[in-house]
Each structure stands twice: as structure tokens, then as C-alpha cells.
């Protein structure tokens, strides 16, 4: 796609001179026998919108609570803006948190909720007035300043929580599943609003979420966590296109995983590899990131939208497989076909619905050809 | 309206009518009678045997003399005031004792809470009188407390607690403590823990988080608990009678005297009617508080 | 008052037959030898349901409400008088109660002032209202020459102020306390004149601050275990405290004194409510209690004198010879009685009492 204007690339993590705002060094957190966080190293840079993504119980919330100061690491050190925060209690950290439940004070009005933090730092009356008004404007809540939390809608409450946590202009804002309580439509709108607010205030955001779409949408970088370990930290595009493990590939979006033995070559680009994934099927021709030893066991991950479906094999693509359509999921803009190969292996392929429904080419039980290019998939060493 | 619905509504109303309204109307009726040496000790008595004339005769004999009398002797309003005062002080004391307990319970680990709750409720399984008598055994001059303190050498002479107003307050606080703990606990328990964390996160110290968030959040429970202690404490009779001294003036005792010593049922009834009228104010405030909570309830 | 609820374990001695005839008796607490209850059942085959109270007021309220369900009740004379006027009782049929011949004339004369002709009730026990003291403690506080046999011990603030430290309790009964205060002043204790009655107020108010509690039952225990050193109460109760202290061997010795100025003599009377479910059973019970041996056993047990001349043969020496129980003739003549107050005066009396107790 052609970019209208050149955009300055925001990637401090690629700049060896950049100093991270938050540095986690060897963080471990144990609750009794249970290790919630296992030796994590992590850098988060100023102005980043950083997402901690993972299933529930993966340790992402614990990590966030350690940044806020509600939990202390069992081992390791956290530095915020160069300062080791081990002995800094939560109320003395320049970090604010937006709680999953919003934790709005039900006995206080919207205005008072937003002013709460400013009053605690004994800001002047004028400063509080000014700052609260600014926050109300930012979150478009001016009309609701005098209402109590139970008198406004869920979306409005979410914005109050955001306004309240931003009022003190923290260096770091932590958001714990900020959109979890909203319905899908509102969630999408709010995602963009969050990004907008993050950009306008220039605050560093760390968001905790189990919703990969949400993480991909809002974040500049995503850390995928599992069992107290960070699996991969990368930009959303890299996470999607260059997952470093089957876990990450599988966690983010839909993926077909083919397992087989690799053999180099036979021709083509550097690190070309053939993967023998099923008896009677031609091997998949792929390109690995690094040389693969003959006969090593690999996983081959390929996204459904990278596979095209046709009555004939596509001669422009290097890989082909024939099978029978066993299922069609019609999603409006796209349809996903589940195609069973003769060996019983089922592969998903997504096609854009360029035509109207009745003109659709394939239907159940059709014998079809799947075709994909040599670089469409990723080779992951097991 | 179908029958099932009708019965569902009728049963509680019948219950109220039979066990509250009818007895109350009888008390009101007696309060307009006059004392007499007879069985029952007042006139007129209601009888349908004389027909309409009997009913007319009955109503013509009713009078408001008893209510007038209540205003003429300062004993009664002093007793009402003294009851209100004792009830108010007891309520405050109960709150002071109950709040930390409720707070501790609400903050206790989940698995302890049923046990703690049970410990609060458990005394109810013993007769109230036996518990009050136990206190007599504890605080009397030769009681356990004094023996213990004297054994420790803290005091040389026994402390006179029994038969003083201190004992009355102790008795009321002890007896009504669960009525204060439970609503406060209920309010604190349903409070989202993250509210306190949010306050701290926004820069509040633990203490100011308690005052600015926990206390206001528990307010409905505190108000409910205060009413639940205050309202019955006003009419309390047994505790001042058993633990209090002779100078503890409470309307319950005055009522007892009128009813039993003077055998003046009509005057005793009018004392009771006025007491109920006085109680209606806090009861209505209590109802309003409950309703407000329900409306604000999330 | 409420205290009754605890010891008032309904002493329902199980009868042999399920549908047996029952007689319900309502008497003062600690006022009979329990063995007599069994004896009555064994003799008559009637199931005895024996219930107790500790205040005339509670009894009276039950009687005035009607349908109390009791066959025999035992009010004190002045209360009996008022209850007779209210029509609570039925007349006794003496022909059915042959033991009535043993009744003591001297007592019958006196009870006739409550119940003219003794038509409604016969005496169960009688006693005096006087002073019980913890000998050592009173001596310790007031010295050896303490006026323990005078009303001034309890009505003179000079003594009461000192006694306060070791504890004084008095009956919570204006009909006992006001006559005593009037007697102390040399007035007619049985006066129904409000102007005379009001003279008792300053006397009582002056000693009020030194009285730990006005209560009609707690003083037995308090005296016995040394919580208080002086009680103005009923003779038998104080003697009971004496015996309990002796049994407990707690170093407390109690003695009872009839004040030399004179003491109130009171009579607890057995009567049958007009609506008694089993009046003939009631007559049998009253007749049983008028048996000289039976009533003597009761007196021996509770340390109260009874109104049965013949029973005196069967009394323990320690009872019949105790001047605190059966006062000598000279003391007897000095005892006074009081009759019921008319309703208006009764109100003045209780009001005065409330004022004394609460200061209002």
C-alpha cells in the first residue's frame, strides 16, 4: 500500500541508544508454591502503547500489579524512569492504573472521581478545576460531571475511569482489561478513542488483555505471555507474520499447523526447505529463517488467508494440495473453507467473497485444489 | 388477579393484621379507657350483647385523659428523653465496637469468613436472658472480672460496674452488637477491593483511603445498623432492669410500673402508643435509607 | 421480676396417668419444700403443676387479665384485698377443707382486715420486713455499737453513707418501703392520706444515693455471697441468705433483725381464682397445705412462720424458737399491717417511689 505522507517510524526498541521508561530485570513472583511470573526481562519505552496479551492465569495481571506497586517481585528489580521502585509504595509512584472493574467511587460524582487523585497531591483549587475540565473534555464527559457513577452508562463509566487515571498525568498508565466490560461495537470505537487519547497525551500505556484483536489494534508492541513467561515481544505485524513459536502463531489469529520432517532444497532461495507432512502428499516447499538440518522435525504454520482455493491448482504458486470441502463458514466479507485432504488432514483456507452468494464457486463436497506460495508460511523448529 | 397471586399477597398481610395491627388497635383502645378495679382492670369494655346502644355507650366513655396526663407529669417526657439518650449513647458505643469487628471480618481471608460470621451469630442460639445473667456473674462486685483484676493486683477494691449505667451500656452494646456488625459487614464485604487500591493508586495513604472510600462505602450499613440498635434500645426493659441501677430511668421501666405496679393498663397503653409514635420517626427514616440503598444498589 | 423466668422451671412433677386430674398452683419462688409436692401427688393422685413468681404485680396482672389457668394462687394480703374487690376470687367452701380448724386465730384476725371474714383466702405463710446484715462487715464499717435493730440503720443518712461502701439493697416495693419510712418518722404506716405519705419522700431521697439497688429478689444472693452488707427485705429471704452463706462456708454470717420501732407484718394468702379450671382440686391442695404436719414441713424448709396453730408442734426448734421467725409476744404487738391503697393513692405512692428511685 502506498503511504500518503512519509511517517516518522516510532520504534525506540530498535534504537540501541534509547533509554527504556520501564526496565524489568529477572522478575520472578511466587505465591506460595505457585510461580506466577518466571524470570521476565522486559523494556517498555516512553510513549509506547504496550500490550500484555495472554490467556487468564498467564501472569499478565500480576506483572501489571507489580508495576503499580500492589505486589512486590520475589526476585529481580523494576526500574521506572531510572529509579528502582522496590521501596516506593503505590501511592508514591508516578504510575496510575485503570482497573478492570473501573473501581469508580460510587459515592462521589464523576467530577469528584476525576479530582480524587489531584486532591490527594494537594493541588490548588484552580489547578484541580482546570485539570478536571480538561479530562472531562478529553473523554467527552462534560455533561455528566455532576452525575454519580450509577447514573451513567457502562461506556461512560469506562471513560470516567480513564479520565480519573489520567488526571494526574502519570508517566505510565496501566490499563487492566479496560474494554472487557463493553459490548463489541462499543469496544471497537473505544479502542480507537484510547489510541487517540494515548497519542494526544503522550502517556505511556501498558494494557493487559486476553483479547488478541484488541492488543493487535491498539498496541505499538505486544508481549504474548504464557505460564508466567513472555513468549514473544514484537509489533503486532511481526507477531502475526513472524511468530516465533507454535504457541504464538496459534494464539494470534487462525493458523494451520503442519508438522513434518524437513529436508533442505531442492532449489530456490537460500534456506529453502521441503516439509514432508503427510503420506502421499507432495512436500510443502517453504523458506526458513535459518538453515534447517536434514530430517529435523519442524512445524509449518500457514494462515488460512494465504491459501487460495480453486478447481485447478494455481500454477503461479509453489504448493498444491487436493481435497474435499467439508465445511464452509460464511462470514460476510470472507468465507473460510475447511478442506479435508485424502490423508484426513483438514486445512482451512479463507477467500474473499468478491461475488454475491448465489454465484459462489464452491460448495460442500466439491473436490478443490489448495495453492499457496513458497513464502506464505513460516517454518518453526519444534 | 389469579388466586395464587392473591394468596401470596394475602398471607403476609393477614400475618401483619393478626399479629401487629389487631394487638396494636387493642392497645390503642385501652389507652382511651380508664382504670378500674375489675377484671380486666379498665372500663369500658367492648361488648356486642347490648347491640348498637352498647357500642354507642362504649364510644361515649372513651377519653383522652391518659394522654393529657402524660403531659402533666414530667416523669413521662423525662423518661422518653432519657430513653432516647441512653439509646443514642448505646448506639454510638455499639458502632465503635462493631465497626472494627465488621471491618476485620470483611478483610479476613474468604475461608475464615463463614466461621467469623458464625461466631457473631452464635450467641443468638443461647437465651438472651442467660447471656445477660452471665454478664451479671462477670461484672458483679465478686464477679469474675473483679476477681481477675484483683488477682492481677491491678485494683485493690472491686469496681462497681453492676447496677450502674455502665452495666446498662455494656449490656445493650453486647446484646445488639450483631445487629450493628452484620449490616456493616454486608456493606464492607460487597465493597470491591479495587476501590481501596484505586484510592491508594491515586495517591491516598492507607488511612485516608479508609476515611475517603471505605467509610463512605459502609455508610448505608452503618446507618442501618444504628437504626437496628437505636430503635429497640429505646424501649429496652430487661437490660436496665437486670443490669442497671435504680436510677436508670427508661420508658420501658415506666411502662412496666404503670402496667404492673399501678395496674393502670390504660395509662400504660397510652405510654406505649406514644412510644410507638416516637419510634415511627426513626423507623420511617430507616425505611427511607433502605429504599435509597436499594435504588442505588448495583 | 424477670428473674422468675430463670428459676421458674415449671416444676411439673410427672403424674402416673396421662389424662390425670390436674391442679395448677402459682406460688412465690423458693417458698415450699419440694418433697411436699410429691407427697400431695402421692396422696391424692392429682397431677400437680407448680409454677412460681417473685412479684405480686406479676401475679396480679395475670389474675386481672383473666383465664390465668391457675387453681391456687398466693398473693400478699394488701394485693388480695384489691383483687377481691375486682372480683378475681371465688369464696372458699370451708366444709370441703376440714383442716381449716387448725388455723391460728391470731393470724385470722389480722388477715380479716384484707379479707373480711376470711371468706376468700387462708394464710399460707407470714413474715416481717426487716433488716438483714452481714455481721462482720457492718461491724467493720460502723463499729460494734451499730444500731442493727433500728430503722435508723437504713433510714439515717449518717449510717447509710458509711454502709454504702459495703453495699445496701432494699426492696423495690413502695408498699413496703413507704410504710417503713413513715414508721421511722413516727407517722401511721398504714396512712392513706397523701399529705402523710409524702412525708416519706425526703427520708427515702436522703438515703437513695447510698442504696446500690432496689430489687426484691437479688438481695438473697448478694447478701449470701458478700456483695452487700445490708438488705432491707423479707424475713425468710434474709434467713435463706443466712443459710446459704453458712452452707457455702464463705466466711459470711448473716443475721435478721426486726426493727425495734416495729416492722411490717405481711401475709401471703392462698386463694382460688373465680375462673379456676379445677376448684375442687384447689380445695384439696389448700386442705393439704393446712395439714399441720405439711405446713410445718414447709415452714421448716423456708424459714417463714405459718398461720396454722397446730403445726407449731411439728416445727423444728430452730424455727419456732427463732424470734426472727416467730417473734415473741412483745415484738408481735409492735408489728403493724398495711391495707391496700385506693387507686388514686396507689398512683401517688408509685409515683413517689419512681421519683425516689430515679430522681424524677
Automatic annotation (TrEMBL), chain A:
PROSITE patterns: ABC_TRANSPORTER_1 (PS00211), ABC_TRANSPORTER_2 (PS50893). Coiled coil: none annotated. The keyword Cell inner membrane applies. This is Spermidine/putrescine import ATP-binding protein PotA. The lineage of its organism: Bacteria, Pseudomonadati, Pseudomonadota, Alphaproteobacteria, Rhodobacterales. It catalyses: ATP + H2O + polyamine-[polyamine-binding protein]Side 1 = ADP + phosphate + polyamineSide 2 + [polyamine-binding protein]Side 1. One of its GO terms (molecular function) is ABC-type polyamine transporter activity. Its EC number is 7.6.2.11. Belongs to the ABC transporter superfamily. Spermidine/putrescine importer (TC 3.A.1.11.1) family. It is an enzyme of class 7 (translocase). Part of the ABC transporter complex PotABCD involved in spermidine/putrescine import. Responsible for energy coupling to the transport system. Keywords: ATP-binding, Cell inner membrane, Cell membrane, Membrane, Nucleotide-binding, Translocase, Transport. One of its GO terms (cellular component) is ATP-binding cassette (ABC) transporter complex. GO terms for biological process: putrescine transport. InterPro entries: AAA+_ATPase, ABC_SmlMolc_Importer, ABC_transporter-like_ATP-bd, ABC_transporter-like_CS, Mo/tungstate-bd_C_term_dom, P-loop_NTPase, PotA-like, Transp-assoc_OB_typ2. Residues 22-252 form the ABC transporter domain. The complex is composed of two ATP-binding proteins (PotA), two transmembrane proteins (PotB and PotC) and a solute-binding protein (PotD). The keyword Membrane applies. SUPFAM superfamilies: MOP-like, P-loop containing nucleoside triphosphate hydrolases. SMART domains: AAA (SM00382). PANTHER family: PUTRESCINE TRANSPORT ATP-BINDING PROTEIN POTG (PTHR42781:SF5), SPERMIDINE/PUTRESCINE IMPORT ATP-BINDING PROTEIN POTA (PTHR42781).
UniProtKB/TrEMBL annotation, chain C:
Keywords: Periplasm, Signal, Transport. Pfam families: SBP_bac_8. One of its GO terms (molecular function) is polyamine binding. One of its GO terms (cellular component) is periplasmic space. It is found in: Periplasm. CDD domains: PBP2_PotF. Gene3D superfamilies: Periplasmic binding protein-like II (3.40.190.10). This is Putrescine-binding periplasmic protein. It comes from the Bacteria. Its main location: periplasm. The keyword Signal applies. SUPFAM superfamilies: Periplasmic binding protein-like II. InterPro entries: SBP (IPR006059), Sperm_putr-bd (IPR001188). GO terms for biological process: polyamine transport.
